[in-house]
Amino acid sequence: MTRLRNGVLLTFYCVALLLLFDFIYTKYFLTIVPGPAVKDPVYNHGLKPNFSGQMRWGSNRYDIFTNSLGFRDASVREVPNQPTMRRVVVIGDSFTEGLGARFEDTFVGKLYFAGQSAAEKTEFLNAGVVSYSPTVYYTKIKYFLERGLKFDEVIVASDISDVQDEATTYFCLDEIPEYRARCTEKSSALGPVVRAGFWDFDPRDSFAVSDAVVNTIKHYLYWYTGVTTRRLRHNGRGGWTIPGFNVGNYLPLGVEGGIERSVRHMQALADLLAKRGIPLTIVVYPWPVQLYLNDRGSRQVKIWRDFCVKNCKQFIDTFPAFFAYKDAHPSDWYGDLYIRGDEHFSKTGNQLAFEEIAKRFSLPQ
Predict the structure, then answer these.
(1) What is the reported pTM?
(2) How far apart are CA 184 and CA 187, in angstroms?
């Protein structure tokens, strides 16, 4: 009994010592600053300009920089309105912002560095931010055009979650009267992922090492026990493309209303760009649920392929590349392409998306 008691006390002592050293390291040696999230009166939310700091996404901590426009970038830098080379603005949501990854490991970051070494030197600017959708794509691009930002092309990385965002939020930004009429305090709040607090540091950030260890263990346990698989297979936010899927709450517009509003705002963006002679490219990519449930003829692809017939310079469908990877790696494709316990791209997933876009823009790979 004495040996057991001593063992328990020793365990508590070691844990307390670990937490003490972790607290000291986190507070006095690890540089943590408030995250880059900022509310915006025009396009709801964005990133602070000229920001340098760290972000946390699950167990991943990584450096993040923004330029003078408040766009994620390789470093803090001034971006003039008038470019000195060809310029392409990329906009999308959290996949485009690159949650959980260093800038150089995101598909837009890879486009940026490839553009700098291309035969026709090109500057790729990342205007994407977590929880954006077509209402925000249109509003933000219009805002920067009106403030004098010059660019030669726009790439919209259309995310599957856009439909839920368009069905439920951003009505206070809307120029279309029937949607604007639904503006309420709730509908003008930050997007659903932003509201979940993923941008900000929380009390666990007093124990950075312990938090990372716990999250890593949790994600691997979830994966090996099948919890992650079941959760991702039943992800209503990304499951609307699959017939008969129980998507849950898409109020007030519902799935079909969310699709209609998405298309109407993408049309507004296409018309805005066409008036200025700026071509539009739309890129689509799958979530894990599409790969799990073999959604090869995805509705996401059909909607934007049909839209692009009249409105786009090109349409880039990355679904075949992701399915080819899954077919070649049937047992480990998820852990390779996505962050474990999550639907966002891993380094490999970002690389795959980059390669599909790069070859259509004649960029070095």
Answers:
(1) 0.87
(2) 5
Angle CA 355–358–359, to nearest 5: 90
**Domain definitions of the chain by residue range:** 1-30, 33-360
For residue 118, pLDDT beyond 50:
yes
Going by C-alpha positions, the residue among 24, 77, 28, 68 that lies closest to residue 48 is: 68
Q: Per DSSP, what are the bridge partners of residue 66?
A: 72
Distances (CA, A) of 32 to 50, 200, 300: 16, 11, 38
User: What mean pLDDT is reported for the chain?
Assistant: 87
Q: Count of residues for the chain?
A: 365
33-360: CATH topology is Rossmann fold (3.40.50)
Q: Which amino acid is at 222?
A: Y
Q: Are 315 and 266 in contact (CB under 8 A)?
A: no
Query: What's the average model confidence in pLDDT over 203-208?
Result: 58
Which tokens is 143 given?
């805002």
Pair type for strands 280-284 and 314-317: parallel
pLDDT greater than 70 at residue 191: no
Tokens 């739309």, residue?
282
